[in-house]
Amino acid sequence: MLTPIEQPIIILVRPQMAENVGAVARAMLNCGLTQLRLVEPREDWRSDKAIAMASGAGAVLEAATAYPDLRKAIADLQHVYAATARRRELTKTIFVPRAAAIEVDTHLKNGEACGLLFGPERTGLLNAEVAECSAIIEVPLNPGFASLNLAQAVLLIAYEWFQRKVLPVERQFLTNDSPLATREELANFLDRLELALDECGFLWPPAKRETMLHNIKTQFARNSLTQQEINTLHGMIVTLRHPRARGPRKN
Amino acid sequence: MLTPIEQPIIILVRPQMAENVGAVARAMLNCGLTQLRLVEPREDWRSDKAIAMASGAGAVLEAATAYPDLRKAIADLQHVYAATARRRELTKTIFVPRAAAIEVDTHLKNGEACGLLFGPERTGLLNAEVAECSAIIEVPLNPGFASLNLAQAVLLIAYEWFQRKVLPVERQFLTNDSPLATREELANFLDRLELALDECGFLWPPAKRETMLHNIKTQFARNSLTQQEINTLHGMIVTLRHPRARGPRKN
Question: What is the bridge-based pairing of β-strands B92-95 and A171-174?
């Protein structure tokens, strides 16, 4: 087993516009990728317009290296995945980006270097280039409108790479530094609300009182309230029943 | 239960550049989304530059509608998710795009209309706007470099929406219309290869013959070969042993 390698290398084959290389650098860094190789780039990938499009990811452009042909660019890698939108007459495994991310991660942990290959803006990779790759990555998109620009193709595949680590946290509840209220704190509020509603004659007629109360309690009980929010509700009830002489007045 | 609704609605709040609205339309259609609403757009979203950036998704721009304020734009929806990169001092659930896609799908199937809200290019949504939303969507990205442009933010969230359906097909083996070879077809080839290698004296010295054979067979056996590829291999062996007088000649 070789030494583990941290990340896949993005390889752009014959990119035409320096701006697009800049936009790729930005998309890469968004997803924590920093290693970029260019095969026969047409323009200077460290030009002002490339750096402007990189929008803060200029260091990725600075560190990028150019190669005279594809074979040299992939010579030291063990696995190369070709990103392609068109189906080819080639016998290869096609991965969706999510599955490719897991596959690449496994290879990297075994110390095997991986490259992700993207073709020129308009034409994509040649069949001869795809033929030398280990497998294909195809992004599942609207079959009637699947054309992505270069940076967006890199973004989606790099995004899936980044997601492989963060997936377990699918949802979290963000509070304003106040802990969630306990059920006792909720119950105390509901009792106080019930008392206030009784005092002000809201729970009427008596035959409907219980149903009305259940519906009102349900609304608050299903909402994950923080201690701070419970306190605010207490204060609102007090103030609604006993208005204070402050704040904007009605004229 | 209401009638099921097909897709979430993308809502851009105060988009500044018509090009960016065009790029959003393209990203939407890539992921099968066609319903776009604009709140106080600064520029004409059907201008030539917007249509150029939409790159074939002009119909999404044509069908887009503008609203004078956020409340009117979301008035008929049941759920609204705010896409935001900055953490707010607000008590809300935060979804990653993948979890949001499942949540939105569930709501839509119950006939509840959903909107996905994106703020202006530089500033993002105001806290007052986020406060009126059901929940937040946050894209997990490199914490040191998480800034996405508007179209890329829409792309990643719309991409996850589209993926919710295609996920089961994570990997497929693409063949050139030829079925995979059976193990018998493989074995016939391996026998023939062994015979040919013996005849030409490759499997030598005898003490190493068996190990060499195992290694050679392993290489072919682990590769999912098609019938066509097996036939090609048969032909290659025959021709390598008995060259034919055709094709490019050495001069």
Answer: antiparallel
User: B89 to chain A: which residues are within 8 Å by CB?
Assistant: 176
Q: Which residues of B touch A32 (CB under 8 A)?
A: 142
Q: Which of B227, B226, B14, B26 is nearest to B117 (CA)?
A: B14
Look up residue A178 and give its amino acid: S
Structure tokens at A26: 């930005």
Give the C-alpha separation, A34 to A8, whole Å.
Answer: 9
Could you give the percent of chain B with pLDDT greater than 70? 91
ipTM exceeding cut-off 0.90 for this assembly: no
Per-residue pLDDT tens digits for B1-23: 456 689 999 999 999 999 999 99
Chain B residue numbers touching A94 (CB-CB < 8 A): 171-174
Query: Contact B174/A95, CB-based, under 8 Å?
Result: no
Is B189 a residue whose pLDDT tops 90? yes
Residues 169-198, chain B, touching A (beta carbon < 8 A): 169-176, 178
pTM over 0.90: no
Amino acid present at B197: L
Residue with the two structure tokens 């979290």: A172
Higher pLDDT, A202 or B155: B155
Q: Chain B closest CA to A145's CA: distance in Å?
A: 5
Coil, strand or helix: which one is B172? strand
Hey, are the CB atoms on A174 and B96 less than 8 Å from each other?
Answer: no
Name the residue among A93, A96, A113 with its Cα closest to residue A105: A113
A222 touches B at CB < 8 Å: no
Q: Identify residue B186 by its one-letter amino acid code.
A: L
User: CB under 8 Å to B18, separation ≥6 — which residues?
Assistant: B41, B43, B44, B45, B47, B49, B50, B53
Give the strand pairing for B9-13 and B36-39.
Answer: parallel
Cα four-point dihedral sign A223, A226, A232, A238? positive
Q: How far apart are CA B113 and CA A96, in angstroms?
A: 29
DSSP string, B2-44: ------PEEEEES---HHHHHHHHHHHHHTT---EEEES-SS-
Q: From the centroid of its chain, how far is CA B18?
A: 26
Of B87, B169, B174, the CB nearest to A87: B174
Question: By three-state DSSP, how is residue B80 classified?
Answer: strand
pLDDT at B136 over 60: yes
Q: Which residue of B has its CA nearest to A148?
A: B30
Interface list for B 19-38 with A (CB within 8 A) = 27, 29-32
Judge: A57–B145 Cβ closer than 8 Å, yes or no: yes
Residue B169 has pLDDT above 70, yes or no: no
Maximum CA extent, chain B: 87
Edge-first strand listing for the sheet containing A135-137: A65-67, A36-39, A9-13, A114-118, A79-83, A135-137, A92-95, B171-174
- For chains A and B, count residue pairs whose Cβ atoms are closer than 8 Å: 136
